[in-house]
Amino acid sequence: MDCYHDQQRMFPGGNCVNHAVFARRFGARTAYAGAVSDDAAGRAIRDAFIAEGVETSLLRIVPGQTAYCVITNEDGERVFTGANLGVSVIAPSPDDLAWMNDADAVHTGRSSHVDSWLEHFASLTRVSYDFATINEEDRIASIAPHCFLAGFSGSHLERDEAIALTQMTLRHGASWAVITRGENGALLAGPDGVIEAPAVPVQPIDTLGAGDTFIARTLVGLLRGEAPVTFLREAAEAAAATCLAQGAFGHGAPMEVDLTTLQTIDEIYATTRPAPGPDTELPATT
Predict the structure, then answer these.
(1) C-alpha–C-alpha distance, residues 180 and 262, integer Å
(2) What is the Cα–Cα distance from 26 to 52, expressed in whole angstroms?
(3) Residue 88's CB: how many other CB atoms inside 10 A?
(4) Spatial separation of the C-alpha atoms in residues 267 and 53, rounded to whole Å
(5) Is the pTM of this model over 0.90?
(6) Residue 281: per-residue pLDDT
(7) For residue 76, what pLDDT is reported?
(8) How many Å apart are CA 144 and CA 122, to the nearest integer?
(9) From residue 199, how far is each of 155, 194, 214 by CA, in Å?
(10) Other CB atoms within 10 Å distance of the CB of residue 285
């Protein structure tokens, strides 16, 4: 749940949540595999999925606190000030893997903490992975071989740096690599070289979710076999539209989140243990 503390409003969000919703809006059939609690935040996320047509059969309700992130808005640009991962770090269940086996793709990323599962995921279907701002070659080299699509957030990168990052990612085995660069547009690299997509200029209200919008449309376009020039243009238009409303995809509600558990982003990545790997016995589900 994305919490706008100064406005006392909360919005469903998070990388994979956003992708499930945006890909559904772009015409894909989607399901979300993850965990929330039976609290106001968890119920709001579930209700948003239902309203958006995202399948919730894989959404687990577990004791604890639903993950949240606290956000401030500086001249339309979203800034993360802290978070708590709550109950969100989980290993996939047998039901999750069975659904994945029939899917055209699965999307996950850095914030899901399931990297040890990527090889297994890739044996079942295509993998879309969001690296966010990671650009260390050793980390990319360990993940890219499993990736159909590797996504990056690169508003801090110069054009030449962004191109070099995509080429390095492809060398390490990814089929496609996309980098969103905010007002500087985006780059998609693949078998036929690098294609650039200019941004659609808008005066943003809130940029939260714009990158997820772009990458979700890119993934859907690749899976459909569409011409990159077509889906990249539509991805830029959709990302611009996301910037014109608060929250990643709407469904705002009065904030009901206990922020006493707030951690800094650095604390989270320093202390969070990844989900149990595939060698760990999985619990049975019904």
Answers:
(1) 28
(2) 11
(3) 24
(4) 35
(5) yes
(6) 60
(7) 63
(8) 11
(9) 12, 16, 10
(10) 11
Q: Which residue has the tokens 């650009």?
A: 135
Distance CA 232, CA 212 (A): 13
Query: Could you report the per-residue pLDDT of 166-200, keeping only the tens digit for each?
Result: 999 999 999 999 999 999 999 999 999 999 999 99
Instruction: Using alpha carbons, select from 21, 30, 25 the residue that is nearest to residue 55.
Output: 30
Comparing CA positions, the residue from 80, 8, 17 lying closest to residue 45 is 17
CA distance 181 to 211: 8
Taking the C-alpha atoms of residue 193 and residue 225, their distance in angstroms, rounded to an integer, is: 16
User: Which residues touch 115 (CB under 8 Å, ≥6 apart)?
Assistant: 142, 143, 274
Starting from the edge strand earliest in sequence, which strands make up the sheet with 253-254, in order?
77-84, 68-74, 2-4, 9-11, 253-254
Half-sphere exposure of 277 (CA within 13 A, CB side): 5
Instruction: Find tokens 């968890």 and name the residue.
Output: 42
Cα(285)–Cα(217) distance, rounded to whole angstroms?
A: 32
**In 3D, which of 195, 1, 174 has the Cα closest to residue 82?**
1
**With the C-alpha atoms ordered 155, 159, 162, 166, is the resulting torsion angle positive or negative?**
positive
